Every structure is written in C-alpha cells, then in structure tokens.
C-alpha cells in the first residue's frame, strides 16, 4: 500500500472518467483502511496520508486544499461514516444460517450495483443496495436470530411472535447499538440537542430543560431521513450545476482555441502580402495573440480543474448517503447520521 504513497494523482478529469469506487482509496487503489477525512471532504487511507503533513498542515493529494492537522499523528480525523460503510461491505460476505431450519444464505457484495448511475442518483426507498442477498433472509431483533423467508412465514406469523421486531438481514440491530453502554438499558429516546441516543436512565438523569429536546427513536429516525433527503436533493442540484459549468467551460476553451487559430491564420495571410519592412510588426502581433490565448486558456483550465475536483466528492457523498440509508438500521443511523 505504501509503495506508491507519494506518486502524483492524475488529472481530475481522468479521475471522473475512471468512475472510482467510493470505498477504494485513490492513492493506494485498495479498500479504505482507517479512512481520514480532509477539510475538502476528500478521503484517503491513514497510511497513505502519513508523513505528508508539514507545519501542522496537510495538502490534499487530489485538489491541493490545505487541511489543519492536530496531534502527534499528523493525520486528519477518521471518517466514521465511511468506516461504517467499509465495515458493512466486509460484513456482506458473511455466511448466514437460519436459526430454525439451518438453511444457509451467502450475502455477496455487488460493487457495480452499489456505485449506481453517476448521472442520476437513486431516490430514497429506491436505493442501490450495499449487499445483494442471493436468498431473502430476515432477522428477528427480539430473538436475536436470522430467519429464512419460509420460516418467517411459517413460525413468526404466530400470535406469540406478534410483538417481535423482524427486519431484513442487512438492517438487523447489532449488539453494540442495542443498549446504552453506561446503564446497560435499551435505547428509547433521542436528544436533538446533543444528537445522541438515550436509555431510560439517561433520560431520567437529564435536566428538565434538556428533556424538552428528547423525542422517541422512531420519530427521530423519520426526521433524520427527511433532512437527509433534502440534503441529497441539494447535492444533486449542485452536481448538475457543476456538470453544466464544466461543459460550458470546455466549450469556451475550445472556442478560444479556434478563435486563436483563426486570428493566427488571418494575420499570417495579411502579413504575407505586405512588404519586408512590416515583418517586425507581424511578429509583434502574433506574439500578442498567442499571449492572450495562453492567458485565457490558463484561466479557464484553472476553473475547469477546480470544478472537476468537486465531482468525485459529490459522487462519493451521493453514493455514501444512498448506501448509508440502505445499510444502516435506526440506531446506526442516529449514531452516525449527524
């Protein structure tokens, strides 16, 4: 991984054409290992960034934006959301066995489907799944056991299981999120003020004015989904505007090039018919036209590079939001969504 840490990245336009997988580091081309989030919202493996910081600042290998790094490691903070998606992708290869009939099901990661269409982000409830199950499997959070589809219909449809919480296997509640680590009680509330989940004891220990900012888990989850939907739409609009601006700038660059070529040909034709005494004047004008062309092209290229560097970030965040919604259960969403 560290063999090509300091090799320069290609141009932003080349990265866009490559349609990089959002769970693969652009430096080492391997799945993220402890992904670090820079101030420009680009992610790289911790090992790929180690040793790059200078005077408390670290320049992004992709766009060059400086990020302030603190502490002795010289690294930005770990992106918990991206780490969650990487871990969820690894969990997608587990072998699952029905607790009732011992039927097995292997979940396979579909990276191509996960990436989705870069030109049209999926809407909520129509998201590309992080894991595609070969056979439909469910999970009973109450029993803490996986169930195949037939057993769910035959056994867990009985009245005695009416209160059991049955979800898809990818949405099962992991043990780490079931209970409050401080009181060992299940989470029942969410504090919109502190952006954290609360058990009954946490709620009782809160001050009266803070309790006014607490809502139940289901309501908090729905409100969070609505806000994330709005944010996704805003990012989609920004993505569309950025693409349109890139197309426009490319057309303007081409127009400047064509215009410069036409002017150069016209000047050559004009001065070809003139006498020898005008040759110096001819060279001066050609140099001026070439200088103007280079200045304009340089200015447009700088704008193009800036906008092109924005596209991978927009695509990663759209896919990240989509994958996060499809793979995270309510507790995971509330723990990481903010």
Automatic annotation (TrEMBL):
Top-level division of the source organism's lineage: Eukaryota
Boundaries of every RING-type domain copy: 25-63
Cited InterPro entries: RNF207, Znf-RING_euk, Znf_B-box, Znf_RING, Znf_RING/FYVE/PHD, Znf_RING_CS
PANTHER family: RING FINGER PROTEIN 207
Keywords: Cytoplasm, Metal-binding, Zinc, Zinc-finger
CDD domains reported for this sequence: Bbox1_RNF207-like
Biological processes annotated in GO: positive regulation of membrane repolarization during ventricular cardiac muscle cell action potential; regulation of cardiac muscle contraction; regulation of heart looping
Subcellular location, record wording: Cytoplasm
Record carries keyword Heme: no
Species this protein is from: Neodrepanis coruscans (wattled asity)
Record protein name field: RING finger protein 207
Gene Ontology, cellular component aspect: perinuclear region of cytoplasm
B box-type domain location: 123-169
A molecular function GO annotation: zinc ion binding
SUPFAM superfamilies associated with the record: B-box zinc-binding domain, RING/U-box
